[in-house]
């Protein structure tokens, strides 16, 4: 019996040793094969692939079965999936079967924390809406906590819709910057300055001084937070203060944004006060230059359009709020023809009700066909460019964002093409403009960081935001009374 056990034991030892030898040999062979396969490949943090890559780069506008390699937050290569895999190895790879990869949307004009006033005052003219509802509500409710929660809600909504960069023209900029830094988005923060009392300020002097202090603290501090100045509008800011604002922007080399020629009432008011239309009034002050980008610009005349093009002023079109407030139809085809850099924005959710760039994209494509009676007036490719590279150019950020191009920041989104409203597929750009919506956005990447994947939010606590929004809304419901 002992001899048999010894024999079985030897056989068992032989079997185990043989198995381990074969297993180790296979590991060595696999490692050698891997080393051969990856020899000469560059290491990157992330590779993102999709059925289509829409680049907004004229040299290669659409790449089928394409991929992008990302390192240190920047795009290092764009090519077919086979070529990217042959040249790069990544810590993480995001596949994109049935998707399109494109630049993140750039929202060129918003008042982000105003999401907490969503639906508070609807179906009103701009002047009535501002003077009797919004300004009183801001005076009563806007504080640090309001801005923090509102900014969090706005970031959640924008990430879900594929916006990767936005302009925030509002109050409490340090709170906004803190929230944006945490959620991972890119933003140009332009605290609003106005001649009369606003939340936390007595008037222009203290509001503008606070804005200047903010830009001093944040200029160059973050790759994703860009400080800017924002005198509210020609009808709410005196000529002396407008001059102070543009001189300060030039001194500190920062962008400046302003509401401009938004309504016929504004045009008449400025003409009566200064004997000039709003754009010409700014020109008379020496205000117009390439660092300036103006929101709305619904009522410029032909000479003013030519003047803005000459001065290099960017324009942000906000079709949703212009329609809802009955401000009119901005002459976008004429501006584009003149060579103005025109981008898109949502405006605040108090006047638009959603921070949804896909709505702005579709409306822009449709409105200007109807107003010009020309179906070719603003084609799909042009509108998609306005929502990405066009906005980036208007903001002076085209050297950083707006396209999928080597050297630019990796601000990208994947959009699903599998839902019934996106089938069949003949022209991917047409689908993105006329058929896609915010719910089709699958993945959002900013600076190489994944903020949302497969619709799962990765950088914000949505349950906490819901609770805090409800709490603030209950207070507003109980205490708000319009001025009229």
TrEMBL record:
It catalyses: S-adenosyl-L-homocysteine + H2O + H(+) = S-inosyl-L-homocysteine + NH4(+); S-methyl-5'-thioadenosine + H2O + H(+) = S-methyl-5'-thioinosine + NH4(+). It comes from the Bacteria. One of its GO terms (molecular function) is 5'-methylthioadenosine deaminase activity. Its EC number is 3.5.4.28, 3.5.4.31. Residues 100-450 form the Amidohydrolase-related domain. Keywords: Hydrolase, Metal-binding, Zinc. Pfam families: Amidohydro_1. Zn(2+) binds at residues 109, 111, 259, 347. Its cofactor is Zn(2+). It is an enzyme of class 3 (hydrolase). Substrate binds at residues 138, 232, 262, 347. Binds 1 zinc ion per subunit. CDD domains: ATZ_TRZ_like. Catalyzes the deamination of 5-methylthioadenosine and S-adenosyl-L-homocysteine into 5-methylthioinosine and S-inosyl-L-homocysteine, respectively. Is also able to deaminate adenosine. Belongs to the metallo-dependent hydrolases superfamily. MTA/SAH deaminase family. This is 5-methylthioadenosine/S-adenosylhomocysteine deaminase. The gene is mtaD.
């Amino acid at each position: 019996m002992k001899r048999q056990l010894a024999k079985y034991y030897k056989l068992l030892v032989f079997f185990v040793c043989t198995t381990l030898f074969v297993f180790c040999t296979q590991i060595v062979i696999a490692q050698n094969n891997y080393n051969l396969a990856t020899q000469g490949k560059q290491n990157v943090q992330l590779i993102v692939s999709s059925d289509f890559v829409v680049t907004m780069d004229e040299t290669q506008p659409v790449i089928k079965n394409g991929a992008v390699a990302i390192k240190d937050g920047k795009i290092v290569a764009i090519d077919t999936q086979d070529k990217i895999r042959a040249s790069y190895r990544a810590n993480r790879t995001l596949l994109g079967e049935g998707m399109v990869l494109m630049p993140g949307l750039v929202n060129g004009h918003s008042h982000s924390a105003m999401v907490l006033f969503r639906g508070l005052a609807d179906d009103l003219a701009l002047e009535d809406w501002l003077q009797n509802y919004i300004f009183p509500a801001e005076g009563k409710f806007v504080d640090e906590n309001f801005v923090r929660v509102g900014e969090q809600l706005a970031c959640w909504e924008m990430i879900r819709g594929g916006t990767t960069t936005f302009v925030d023209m509002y109050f409490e900029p340090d709170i906004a910057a803190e929230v944006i830094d945490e959620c991972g988005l890119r933003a140009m923060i332009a605290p609003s300055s106005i001649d009369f009392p606003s939340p936390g300020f007595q008037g222009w002097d203290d509001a503008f001084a606070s804005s200047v202090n903010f830009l001093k603290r944040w200029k160059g501090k973050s790759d994703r937070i860009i400080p800017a100045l924002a005198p509210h509008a020609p009808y709410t800011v005196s000529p002396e203060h407008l001059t102070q604002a543009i001189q300060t922007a030039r001194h500190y080399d920062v962008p400046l944004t302003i509401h401009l020629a938004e309504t016929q009432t504004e045009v008449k008011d400025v003409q009566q006060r200064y004997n000039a239309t709003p754009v010409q009034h700014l020109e008379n002050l020496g205000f117009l230059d390439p660092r300036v980008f103006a929101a709305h610009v619904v009522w410029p005349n032909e000479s003013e359009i030519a003047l803005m093009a000459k001065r290099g002023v960017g324009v942000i079109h906000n079709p949703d709020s212009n329609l809802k407030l009955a401000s009119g139809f901005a002459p976008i085809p004429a501006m584009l023809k003149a060579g103005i850099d025109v981008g898109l924005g949502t405006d605040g959710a108090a006047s638009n009700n959603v921070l949804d760039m896909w709505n702005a994209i579709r409306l822009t494509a449709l409105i200007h066909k109807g107003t010009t009676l020309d179906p070719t007036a603003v084609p799909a490719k042009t509108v998609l460019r306005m929502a990405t590279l066009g906005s980036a150019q208007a903001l002076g950020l085209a050297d950083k964002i707006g396209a999928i191009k080597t050297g630019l920041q990796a601000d990208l989104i994947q959009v699903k093409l599998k839902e019934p409203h996106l089938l069949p597929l003949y022209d991917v750009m047409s689908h993105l403009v006329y058929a896609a919506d915010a719910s089709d956005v699958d993945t959002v990447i900013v600076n190489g960081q994944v903020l949302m994947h497969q619709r799962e939010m990765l950088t914000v606590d949505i349950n906490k935001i819901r609770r805090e929004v409800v709490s603030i809304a209950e207070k507003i419901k109980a205490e708000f009374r319009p001025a009229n």
